[in-house]
TrEMBL record, chain A:
PANTHER family: PROTEASOME SUBUNIT ALPHA/BETA. Keywords: Cytoplasm, Proteasome. It comes from Brevibacterium permense. Coiled coil: none annotated. NCBIfam families: 20S_bact_alpha (TIGR03691). This is Proteasome subunit alpha. Belongs to the peptidase T1A family. One of its GO terms (cellular component) is proteasome complex. It holds the Pfam family Proteasome. It comes from the Bacteria.
Automatic annotation (TrEMBL), chain B:
Its EC number is 3.4.25.1. Signal peptide: none annotated. InterPro entries: Ntn_hydrolases_N, Proteasome_sua/b, Proteasome_suB-type, PSB_actinobac. The keyword ATP-binding does not apply. It comes from the Bacteria. It comes from Brevibacterium permense. SUPFAM superfamilies: N-terminal nucleophile aminohydrolases (Ntn hydrolases). Pfam families: Proteasome. This is Proteasome subunit beta.
Length: 229, 265
């Protein structure tokens, strides 16, 4: 006689998956993405100099992620493929963060509901506008939900603590130096440590560059020059 | 499932051309009519040589269809990425598509891998793209590029020429391609030295292109009426790829013309 199949209610199933994904993400270190007066700063606590959490997707689009490396790396590469193919088929200005975010949201939601395990990742897609008012920050969760933010956005295990310590900071009015130091302080406060510069990874989308590709990594020397603590 | 096509998530390739071939073949160029060749604009003289600090590449701006001038302002030399340049002689439509595809191929690799290709790697990749284009070459739409650049292992720079079958050859001093290349190369044989500084190099480039335009109807000289100067790019490890301002090139061209007028040659 065969065994009676287990019944799991959809609510329970979704809750279990969400808990699983959240646990995986909570283990990782955090990333914060902040607008400043001349661009967007992407800042991560990341001791590895080569396994990046922050990356370039396209001319004006940056990507930041936390969670399982192989999963967000797959998503990053898919984003680069999406952007390059779209820019080649149409025009470079037709690649938008909104379109990319939609594709990420659909993929994350599809995996969350149909695959045996959800992606244990959170993402930020940032687009540098031609003018500051048109900057865009999107935060994507493991289940495909999307939130758009106006000033700054944090993801990862200590996201809530970082957001709390940055509450009220109008970063889009500040210079890169001020925003960088706010970011480092908030990342450090969330883990109650003082972060060494070589444990940080940072990049900017720079509105002032004459180049088409605005993404630029900040090396340790550039970060040390910006730090005031 | 909506979102990314499955191939975007499962692909292990870092080549844009391979991605486009499998996911969107309609986006790649492939004209197939045999007698297109007579009606397509063609590109003309590109020169490239070593300088004291790196590489200089220059090209004229004229495109022709048979005996007609199709364009006075075509740019046939472009930056391939931050440390290399590409110039193309041949059927203009295919040439410009190939440049755009090659630029994207390098950018795509850099973003996927998080590191730049070596200069030799870039040249090999270009050779492979030309081999993929062999069908078009057979139909008469031939495109021959000249590729040059610098990288950390070769800060003095390297120049590569190619043939339509994808053969890749390193040039050690100077090289030129296109219908006026013979005249330009003759000029370079007399004028080129290994220790040319920035200003001298620009003057040599303008002289060589002037000679090509003097004797080849499909190569354009400096155009003082429309203020169109030849395209000149320099590459070195310190500054990367820089385009020389067209005002500077026109000033140099004015001096060259004055010098030649004085000696009537």
């Amino acid at each position: 006689m065969s065994q009676a199949p287990f019944y799991v209610s959809p609510e329970q199933l979704m809750k279990d998956r969400a808990d699983f994904a959240r646990k995986g993400i909570a283990r990782g270190r955090s990333v914060v993405v902040m607008r400043f007066d001349a661009g967007i700063l992407l800042l991560a606590e990341n001791p590895s100099p080569t396994l990046h959490k922050i990356a370039e997707i396209y001319d004006r689009i940056g990507f930041a992620a936390v969670g399982k490396y192989n999963e967000f790396e797959t998503l990053r590469q898919a984003g680069v493929r999406y952007a390059d193919l779209r820019g080649y088929s149409y025009d470079r200005t037709d690649v938008t963060a909104r379109g990319l975010t939609n594709a990420y949201a659909q993929t994350l939601a599809g995996v969350f509901t149909t695959e045996s395990k959800p992606f244990e990742v959170e993402l930020v897609v940032a687009e540098l506008g031609l003018s500051p008012e048109t900057d865009q920050l999107y935060r994507l969760s493991y289940d495909g939900s999307v939130i758009d933010e106006t000033e700054h956005v944090a993801i990862g295990g200590q996201a809530d603590a970082i957001t709390a310590s940055l509450a009220g900071v109008r970063s889009s009015q500040m210079t890169l130096r001020e925003v960088f130091n706010h970011g480092v302080t908030a990342l450090g406060a969330a883990t109650q440590t003082i972060l060494a510069t070589d444990a940080l990874e940072a990049a900017v989308l720079d509105r002032t560059t004459p180049k088409q590709r605005t993404f630029r990594r900040l090396d340790d020397a550039a970060m040390s020059a910006l730090r005031e603590d | 499932m909506a979102g990314f096509p499955p191939a975007f998530l499962s692909s292990t390739s870092n080549s844009f051309v391979e991605l486009a071939r499998s996911s969107a073949p309609e986006a790649l160029p492939h004209p197939s009519v045999r007698d297109l060749a007579e009606q397509s604009p063609e590109g003309t003289t590109i020169i490239c040589f070593r300088t004291a600090s790196g590489i200089l590449m220059a090209g004229d701006r004229r495109a022709t269809i048979g005996n007609l001038i199709a364009s006075h302002s075509m740019e046939k030399v472009k930056a391939a990425d931050d440390y290399s340049v590409i110039g193309i002689a041949g059927t203009a439509g295919v040439a410009l598509d190939l440049i755009r595809l090659f630029q994207l191929e390098l950018e795509h690799y850099e973003k996927i891998e998080g590191a730049r290709l070596s200069l030799n790697g870039k040249a090999n990749r270009l050779a492979a793209m030309l081999r993929g284009n062999l069908g078009l070459a057979m139909q008469g739409l031939t495109v021959v590029p000249l590729f040059a650049g610098v990288d950390e292992s070769r800060p003095q720079g390297q120049i590569f020429s190619f043939d339509v079958t994808g053969g890749k050859y390193e040039e050690h001093r100077f090289h030129s391609i296109g219908s006026g290349s013979g005249f330009a190369r003759g000029a370079l044989k007399k004028l080129w030295r290994a220790d040319l500084d920035h200003e001298q190099a620009i003057a040599v480039a303008v002289e060589a292109l002037f000679d090509a335009s003097d004797d080849d109807s499909a190569t354009g000289g400096p155009d003082f009426v429309r203020q169109i100067a030849p395209t000149i790019f320099t590459v070195d490890l310190e500054n990367g790829v820089t385009e020389v301002e067209s005002a500077t090139v026109l000033d140099t061209a004015t001096e060259v013309v004055a010098r030649r007028t004085a000696t009537a040659r």
